[in-house]
């Protein structure tokens, strides 16, 4: 959109118009209404940062861009200068009204589609080529995985996140911030750090520093089940400093879940099971702890991993875990239980030799090796 010089050489269409002559009054968006910081409303006020974010997206004239949380439109204006169309999803009706007012009666209005609502609750996202977002920090994780699950995959996503969350996205094995989030994100996409953004670039300033990352979904998408993959990682990262032997064999509810899944697999594939009780000799030889304390598992990770993936990916696993906990017969061990335990030991000790490795030291290849070996034994995680 061409900018026509106006008052004192200041372009009226510029989102920062008049800022230079309003010294001492630089509350722009706050002059319109009070920001709701509870839902992450922090308006990006630095024009240089806004332009850099759009430039890093490498937009084409034919691109349809999804913008999440457009606010008053400081990024939107710059996106519209380079893209064919912008689909802006805004949760706050006040912000939506300001965005609409800003582009009314301008040539860009016809190329802007505004959706009022919560992007996470949308059952399906409209088609888009690139996503650009000054992301409300409360939805960082669910938005990331919603974008990665979108089909067809976008070409890239340039997203602003809280610094620690961004660093976890591209952390490597052994790093302090390496977590289930790191493995999941890097399995489905290439993650690049773009730049740091200080808190003073926002109005009002947030409590934390920010980083911009570029997420490029892998093409073609890895041919594995997300539920299977994440189910394995949830167990491995129960305590990321525990060895994998303890994470699997030392946690009774994990073994109960794997046994239930194995029974389902056998039923679906006409595999006959000897479902009798263990005789005294076999029961006496069962290795209960396997080097770790026999504790219950409710699907919760270490504190820093608890919100790695959104609720709609967690609900089914949590439901299964609760069902196992509520089952009065869950402590009764039989031949099937011992068979499953033997299969898990075989995978960890013989097939992969990862029994003594800690999750925080395993890379994507290690977890793929584990998943393949478990599946070959008929053990599944969803």
The CATH class of the largest domain turns out to be Alpha Beta
CATH superfamily of the largest domain: Vaccinia Virus protein VP39
Share of residues in helices: 25-40%
Shape: elongated
Overall mean pLDDT: 82
What is the CA-CA span between the terminal residues?
50 Å
According to CATH, the fold-level topology of the largest domain is: Rossmann fold
Order of helices and strands: HEHEHEHEEHEHHEEEHHHHHHH
Biggest β-sheet strands, sense, barrel:
7 strands, mixed
CATH architecture call of the largest domain? 3-Layer(aba) Sandwich
Low-pLDDT windows of residues: 1-32, 284-314
Strand order of the largest sheet: 4-3-2-5-6-9-7
Walkthrough of the structure:
It holds the Pfam family RrnaAD. Belongs to the class I-like SAM-binding methyltransferase superfamily. rRNA adenine N(6)-methyltransferase family. The protein is an alpha/beta fold and 382 residues long. It has 2 domains: 7-217, Vaccinia Virus protein VP39 (Rossmann fold), CATH 3.40.50.150; 226-376, Helicase, Ruva Protein, domain 3, CATH 1.10.8. It has helices at 28-32, 47-56, 74-82, 93-103, 140-149, 163-169, 180-188, 226-236, 244-249, 252-268, 280-284, 311-326, 335-351, 364-376; strands spanning 43-44, 64-68, 85-90, 112-116, 130-134, 156-162, 189-197, 202-203, 210-217. Strand 3, helix 4 (93-103) and strand 4 form a beta-alpha-beta unit. Helix 2 (47-56) crosses helix 3, helix 8 packs across helix 14 (364-376) and helix 10 (252-268) crosses helix 12 (311-326).
């Amino acid at each position: 959109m061409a900018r026509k010089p106006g008052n004192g050489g200041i372009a009226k269409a510029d989102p920062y118009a008049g800022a230079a002559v309003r010294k001492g009054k630089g509350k722009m968006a706050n002059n319109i209404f009070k920001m709701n910081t509870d839902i992450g409303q922090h308006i990006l006020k630095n024009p240089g940062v806004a332009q850099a974010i759009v430039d890093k997206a490498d937009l084409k004239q034919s691109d349809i861009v999804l913008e999440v949380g457009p606010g008053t439109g400081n990024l939107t204006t710059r996106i519209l200068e380079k893209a064919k169309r912008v689909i802006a999803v805004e949760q706050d009706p006040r912000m939506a009204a300001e965005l609409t007012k800003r582009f009314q009666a301008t040539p860009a209005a016809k190329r802007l589609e505004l959706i009022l609502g919560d992007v996470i609750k949308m059952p399906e996202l409209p088609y888009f080529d690139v996503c650009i977002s000054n992301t409300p920090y409360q939805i960082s994780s669910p938005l990331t995985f919603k974008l990665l699950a979108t089909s067809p995959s976008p070409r890239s996503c340039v997203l602003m996140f809280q610094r620690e969350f961004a660093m976890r996205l591209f952390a490597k094995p052994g790093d302090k911030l390496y977590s289930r989030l790191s493995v999941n994100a890097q399995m489905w996409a290439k993650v690049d750090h773009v730049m740091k953004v200080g808190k003073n670039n926002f109005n009002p300033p947030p409590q934390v520093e920010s980083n911009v990352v570029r997420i490029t979904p892998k093409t073609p998408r890895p041919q594995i089940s997300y539920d299977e993959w994440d189910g394995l990682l949830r167990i491995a990262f129960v305590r990321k400093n525990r060895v994998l032997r303890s994470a699997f064999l030392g946690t009774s509810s994990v073994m109960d879940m794997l046994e239930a899944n194995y029974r389902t697999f056998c039923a679906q594939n006409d595999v006959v099971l000897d479902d009798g009780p263990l005789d005294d000799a076999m029961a006496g030889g069962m290795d209960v702890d396997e080097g770790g304390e026999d504790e219950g598992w409710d699907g919760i990770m270490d504190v820093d991993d608890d919100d790695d993936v959104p609720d709609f990916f967690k609900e089914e696993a949590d439901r299964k875990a609760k069902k196992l906990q509520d089952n009065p017969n869950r402590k009764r061990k039989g031949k099937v239980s011992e068979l499953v335990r033997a299969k898990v030991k075989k995978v960890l000790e013989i097939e992969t030799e990862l029994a003594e490795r800690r999750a925080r030291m395993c890379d994507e290849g290690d977890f793929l090796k584990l998943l393949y070996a478990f599946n070959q034994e008929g053990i599944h995680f969803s």
